[in-house]
Design a protein that fits this description.
This protein has about 200 residues and is an alpha+beta fold. The protein has one helix spanning about 20-80, and strands spanning about 100, 125, 145-160, 170-180, 185-195. Strands 1, 2, 3, 4 and 5 form a 5-stranded mixed β-sheet that branches. About 25% of the residues are buried.
Length: about 200
Amino acid sequence: MTRPAAAPHILPVFRPQRGAALVIAMILLLIMSLLAAASLRETHMQERMSSNSHDRDLAFQSAEAGLKMGERQAENWVKSGAANADLASCQNPSLKGLYRNVDAQCPIPLWEGPAPGELGAFWHDASADPGGDGIRFTDKGLSLAPFYIVELISENAPCQINSPDLNTTCKRFRVTASSRSAEGRARVTLQSIYATE
């Protein structure tokens, strides 16, 4: 019996490489880098938005406290039986922040004048007000102390707007409070109308 002749061993033929795998890998790496950079940018934007929202909330809470302090100042002024002469005007700023309604006499509303803390401002700094209900404005991370303006806008206004009683009248005040965050990224100004007998 004869064996068939063994087939000769054939060596594989290598074709020259053209680098397609390297180009594809580089394109994929570039795409992944762009996605990572976009993600980092979005994260940074979210952090800034969160910080701004936090600062605005702190400034809002501080301005709200200033509004309450101004309303208490108006009530104390009425209870003490103070006269109209105790109220300042736009020509004569007051350290207490109490004013007559002088819209017709002043070129601009008092709260649109110089910013709180600036020279010639009509704002009262509430940081030294007595009886601040335990509110502290010097803690790190909190907003700065609020400023407020209290204006007497009517001496004979009905105490209840919905059901006016002509026999009972109240003094009506416009209270404007302003505060800003410690970093200065947010400023909030609030205004209320406050009536007291």
